[in-house]
């Protein structure tokens, strides 16, 4: 058997060097990337039929229990911190506020929710918040305090501006409400807008206030309108409110204003010129010939007898 040629000896060496080079170019393992995907949800069920939120029900002073499932599906350990948020979330206490999950593991954390002694009967909401790996997951929590409920809904602060209707909804009762809204607008010559009642995409918790807008793209250009909003909800909750607005076309108003201002300016200018002309008009020169004054009759002159000058002349001659 002939010895291997140098070419055959170099082939395994080249193969090993190529494999080492490819390993060096490959991306690092997932374990070096930090925490991978993870989830937090109410315990029980599978991913397909998991509960959408934690729901508890009890009387004031009752301690209610449930569990939260945290799953780490990554290849690295994960540290998760738990807390409650919102009204009902503030009633929650977890068995562990911080837990560390190894890779590809799942943990169920017990939680206890204490309904306050002074809790008003009705629905309350909150969230269980899980934070880890730079992410945050919020699990909704719904609590119903057993007792007489009151459904009360209000609509207020209605404003009409251009093609937008603004208003606010307030839950004044102790029950969770899903409002429905109807809109109607009346103008000088009849109905301009008539939208039948429809459900709004929101859930109004007790004591909550929400500001909303209703678009009105075909609002009139010239009219005086009254907009009326009517809201209702289950349990007999309902309320109405209205607002008025005047629509005027911008261009005619501006043009009319300019015409009025121009007319006033012309009148003021004419009056000013008339006053200046009246003040500067030349006055007729005074008459140079003195007016002849009639003579006033003087006192009557007494008639005296003629003086006889002859004796005086004779006396002078003798002298």
Task: Explain the overall architecture.
- This protein is α+β, with helices and mostly antiparallel strands and 319 residues long.
- Helices cover 20% and strands 41% of the residues.
- The protein is built from four helices and 16 strands.
- The protein has helices at residues 6-25, 86-89, 250-280, 310-318, and strands at 38-42, 54-58, 63-72, 78-85, 92-94, 98-101, 105-114, 122-132, 135-145, 153-161, 164-171, 180-187, 190-199, 209-215, 223-233, 237-247.
- A five-stranded mixed sheet has the order 2-9-8-4-6.
- The N and C termini lie far apart (220 Å).
Annotation keywords:
319 residues, alpha+beta, 5-stranded mixed beta sheet, elongated
Number of strands: 16
Shape: elongated
Derived from helix and strand composition plus strand pairing, the structural class reads alpha+beta
Task: Output the helix-strand order.
Answer: HEEEEHEEEEEEEEEEEEHH
Low-confidence stretches: 20-35
Order of strands, main sheet, comes to 2-9-8-4-6
The percent range for helix content is: 10-25%
The end-to-end distance, rounded to whole angstroms, is: 220 Å
- Overall pLDDT, averaged? 80
Question: Taking Cα atoms only, what radius of gyration do you get, to the nearest Å?
Answer: 53 Å
Sheet of most strands:
5 strands, mixed
**Share in β-strands:** 35-45%
Number of helices: 4
